Amino acid sequence: MAVRRRSTSTSAGAPAGTTAAGRATALLDAVRLRLAEAGAVPTATEVTAALRSERPPLGGDDLLDTVSTLRSELVGAGPLDTLLSAPDVTDVLVNGPNEVWVDRGGGLSRESSVGFPDAEAVRHLAYRLATAAGRRLDDARPWVDARLPDGTRLHAVLPPIVSDCTHLSLRVSRQQPFTLGELVKSGAMPPAGAELLGGIVRARLSLMISGGTGTGKTTLLAALLGLVGRQERIVIAEDSAELRPAHPHVVRLQGRPPNQEGLGELTLRDLVRQALRMRPDRLVVGEVRGAEVTELLAALNTGHEGGCSTVHANTAADVPVRLEALGSMAGLDRFALHSQLRAALDVVIHLVRDQRTGRRRVAELHTLVGDHVGLAGTVPAVTFGPDGSVTEGPGWERLAQRCAERGVVLERGRR
Q1: Comparing C-alpha atoms, which of 75, 84, 73, 68 is closest to residue 131?
Q2: Predicted confidence band at 414 (pLDDT cuts at 50, 70, 90)?
Q3: Do 320 and 375 meet the contact criterion of CB atoms below 8 Å apart?
Q4: What CA–CA distance (Å, rounded) separates 352 from 350?
Q5: Can you tell me the distance from the alpha carbon of 66 to that of 146, in angstroms, rounded to the nearest whole number?
Q6: Residue 103 shares a structural domain with residue 229
Q7: How many domains does one find in the chain?
Q8: pLDDT tens digits, residue range 29-59?
Q9: In this structure, is residue 12 part of a structural domain?
Q10: Residue 159: half-sphere exposure toward Cβ, Cα within 13 Å
Q11: Which span out of 84-88, 134-138, 186-190, 371-375 was modeled with the highest average pLDDT?
């Protein structure tokens, strides 16, 4: 069916009184329509050709800037592109047309140089990003949690779930994962801490990384997976693909929400079951959030050594209680879960974030113990101070023994 082309007003022939924003919107609509009519992919060349056909009074650098802006609006993140491409930006949050917040590693600060024309522009961007991620976002399902093609994590919520305006949360994915050496340089841990964590990975101990939101759990897990032997096969199960370890043999499984008919959902629990059939040398669950904890603990109790995961918890000591709550979602008896937990998990690595400086760091390592009634608990093996000090705790001997049993000798820290 032929497409009837509407007339457009660009900056070359816009009626008097038209605002700059209106002219820009009209130009964008005109270029989008020409690309759609031609069935062209919005590359720089195609956008330039479509733009020239509209004959705006542009030339030289102005034309290049306009092409870049139009491509950003068509296939990028619009006005947020400059922030997402900055090397020091970790998070970009949009609360409204003129409320953009940025984290550059030192906590959130308001970005006054970036904004949107109105709330509808924010909503439109949320729709487009969700589509690019292959996810649904509309009034029937007013939120989305997905991974964009470049690795950026997207979370968007539409009104009326949030008031006034669509809210966007974008977490930038580093193209190259951090190494332990880089984390040491950033102050995330002392050199002795990196050596200790490297020994735990070589010993194939099962570990769980705990901490609050934004403490760097995924970053540390990716760095540790980069230390896994090159001959080992890593199978990762995640709700949305985040982990990108620097390793030659990684298999990634990603969950999927249900479609409009409520069908086709793939839960993390489904993924863990499939991962166990894919001959993993290291089974990794990106984040334990629910009933999948039962499959993970069962796997770690049946010969799958060196498994890893992350979990939200306030302290390392809270991890058994947190896992107990998650296990109850699957109907797992309290004592059964604690029994499996003591046998399956070797180490809890806890991360914190300094609220004043925004610095993320490894705070402590705990080992698992059982109490007199059979419930699992944790005891500190090593504590890392903000000044880089390393202090051994009552769990040190158990940690050192577990590693020695697998041929890895841990260097003693400073008391």
Answers
A1: 75
A2: very low
A3: yes
A4: 7
A5: 29
A6: no
A7: 3
A8: 666 666 666 665 556 666 666 666 665 555 5
A9: no
A10: 11
A11: 186-190
